[in-house]
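dumping this here before i forget
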Amino acid sequence: MALMDRVRDWKDRRDGLVPDGNGGGPGTAVAPAGDPALVRKREALAGEVAEAQFDLGGLAYEMAIRDHFRLDVLTRRAARLQELDAELAETERLLRLADGGASGSCRSCGALHSRGAVFCWQCGSRLLEPVGG
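structure:
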């Protein structure tokens, strides 16, 4: 089994999305009945985040053994990891809120948002128009 598959399986068991093999209990919950596209997006993002973490760690290790650090390269990779992690967190939040029918999309960038959100999580544009004025 590939490392990424093991990480994904561990995260699913940790989050209670698949049975944990102990014959019942809290680990036997079924995956959330959210939008299948969001579930696929979450799975893809989780893989990208894990891969970016492994890459960043490997890159730092390789630089350390060569005693030659390029902070600009590490900073770019860490920034990309933060972007992926934020997108994953937002997707997971939208999946949790899907039971309440909370979702929409930003007019500027098309990113999904929850009901009642005032600003887009991705581009920062205002989602709700001011009343009066």
